[in-house]
Amino acid sequence: MAHAQRSRNLRLGVDLEANALIANHGVDAYSAACLRAQEASSEEMAQDWSDVANAVARKTRRRGSFMMAAVSRGAALSAQAGPV
After folding, report:
1. Rounded Cα gap, residues 82 and 84, in angstroms
2. Regarding predicted confidence, which is higher, 53 or 3?
């Protein structure tokens, strides 16, 4: 029973972290999670961030139209702003 509870808590933590990255980084959430996995100080932390990256990928696939709209909106705003 304790193992099942720990596993559920870990999944909830991954899910919460994925949601936070999506909210804070939008279309760059997956890249942010992958970068954190690469920069992790241990194999265990790297695996945790890899799990978060996978969760982000799953969530953004389901909301693909939302993410594509955000990309299109960002491109449109950049085009309106003109050259930098």
Report:
1. 7
2. 53
What is the per-residue burial (b if ≥16 Cβ within 10 Å, else e) of 31-61? ebbbebbeeeeeeeeeebbbbbbebbeebbe
Give the pLDDT confidence of 26-44 residue by residue, as tens digits. Answer: 989 999 999 999 999 999 9
Q: Enumerate residues 6+ apart whose C-beta is below 8 A from 51.
A: 14
With CA atoms as reference, report the closest residue to 36 among 54, 48, 19, 20: 48
Cα-Cα-Cα-Cα dihedral sign, residues 24, 26, 28, 29: positive
Separation of alpha carbons 4 and 18, rounded Å: 21
